[in-house]
Amino acid sequence: MPEMPEVQGLVEFLDGRITGLEITRVSVAAIAALKTYDPPVDALRGASISGVSRHGKFVDVATGTAHLVFHLAKAGWLRWYDALPSTIIKPGRTPIALRIALSDGSGFDLTEAGTKKSLAVYVVRDPADVPGIARLGPDPLEPGFTRATFGTLLTGKRTQIKGLLRDQAVIAGIGNAYSDEILHAAKMSPYTLAANLTDDDVNRLYAAMIETLRDAVAQASGKPPADLKDAKRRGMRVHGRRGEACPVCGDTVRSVFFADNSLEYCPTCQTGGKLLADRRLSRLLK
Fold first, then answer.
1. pLDDT tens, position by position, 7-36
2. What positions does the domain FPG-type occupy (predicted)?
3. What is the CATH number of the domain that holds 130?
């Protein structure tokens, strides 16, 4: 799933290439991906793009008439073309959900792999009209997101810290992958309750979060969409590296599996050597 760093890289790429261009055609190939009807998607045709920005994991393409907002979900991505293909996209026979043609002949497709379709596209007058944006918590890389701000968000929360970091209503932009990376950098178990953290724990977690995200954003900056996913994988220390050696201590990276995802952690660095129970096996033993 694209998270804040990759989405920020995508926003920077698009902003530098499409701002000032006119949208000449919008083709919807997966009607289920379009979540709004007023204004209609045709309102984008002929509109000049004034800029591209990010809200959490949402991309916001602003025009003088409406905003094209999209969330790439778990398996969505953006495919960029310097010269947009002239082929006609056929609904139901392609991973393409939406195609945008631009006035200089370039354009992009929003695509989604797999059978579970979650990619979401909105055409709105104001980004705040998108429910997911309206309920976003603060962005951790905004200047006002201080250690004190972070501490306030954690106070009294009887929630495991892994889940809290991923909660978009608490903190915007962090998902499964970077929460693993942040907790590894902070040397903290994903099951630690937020309410049980000491001041030193919060200091360490805040520093790990800011450093991890800033480094990842810097790595994503300047890369075209086709390279962003591989750059993300190369930068991971524990996420997606089950069975490999932890780059800090050399212990084996372990996984805990859930219904539709997993978390990765280093026992030596994060749990005092304790192995966390595999939730799939736990269910079988009940």
1. 999 999 999 999 999 999 999 999 999 999
2. 237-271
3. 3.20.190.10
